[in-house]
Amino acid sequence: MKRNVDLNEISDGRLYSANDMVKVECGDCAGCSACCQNMGTSVVLDPMDIWKMQRGTGRMLEKLLKKELELNVVDGIILPNLRMNGTREVCSFLNEEGRCSIHPYRPGICRLFPLGRYYEKNGFHYFLQIDECRKKSRGKMKVKKWLWIENLKTYETYKTVIQKYDSNMYVVPAYE
Ligand code: SF4
Ligand code: SF4
Questions:
Q1: pLDDT surpassing 70 at residue 20
Q2: Is the pTM of this model over 0.85?
Q3: How far is 55 from 61, CA to CA, in rounded Å?
Q4: Which of 91, 156, 157, 170 is most solvent-facing, going by the fewest CB within 10 Å?
Q5: Whose CA is nearest to atom 7 of ligand 2?
Q6: What are all long-range contacts of 138-142, with beta carbons under 8 Å and residues at least 24 apart?
Q7: Cα 9 to middle of ligand 1, angstroms
Q8: From the CB of residue 65, how many other CB atoms can be counted at a distance below 10 Å?
Q9: 75-123, pLDDT tens digit by residue?
């Protein structure tokens, strides 16, 4: 999802790569599930998220859309997002112990948080959102360890291609 924000206002002003250390380590989120609630429609899923979720849960998208996911328009495109339930707006995958029930195959945005991606011409860097995680005394950890994504280089290329594809949806053909 594109955001028009001033990076200096929401981050520590640094851009990170996969091998850099960043202050994200939050003690395994023990006792906290704040970022699994009140997210509205903002946890948008990409094709890889859906593929992994289908494999992990053994349920196809049509079934997931009945309970855990929903469809919304994002930047002019209809995309699936995590559904939040009840007055507390809790993610459908958060279990009674306040833990993620699909942790090994949770969506890319959940793995990334509280990091974000800053896209440039031929790729992106990561940035740290300073006011998002509730745990204020966080330790340092390598970006790639925090993400824990298999074949990260390939995944980063995939995210760049997807982002370019989304941007191109807005290019008005020259012949119109
Ligand atoms: S999928 Fe898991 S990590 Fe992501 S918001 Fe839901 S419960 Fe939290
Ligand atoms: S707000 Fe921070 S500590 Fe709390 S669940 Fe999210 S990442 Fe974990």
A1: yes
A2: yes
A3: 10
A4: 170
A5: 133
A6: 138/23, 138/24, 138/25, 138/26, 139/23, 139/25, 140/21, 140/22, 140/23, 140/24, 140/25, 141/21, 141/22, 141/24, 141/25, 142/18, 142/19, 142/20, 142/21, 142/22
A7: 26
A8: 14
A9: 888 999 999 999 989 999 999 999 999 999 999 999 999 999 999 988 9
Ligand 2 centroid to residue 157 C-alpha, Å: 27
Q: pLDDT tens for residues 123-169?
A: 999 999 999 999 989 999 999 999 999 999 999 999 999 988 777 65
Q: Which residue has the tokens 């990561």?
A: 126
Using CA atoms, how far apart are residues 128 and 112, in angstroms rounded to an integer? Answer: 10
Q: Which residue ranges have their beta carbon within 6 Å of ligand 1?
A: 36, 43, 82, 91, 93-94, 100, 102, 106-107, 110
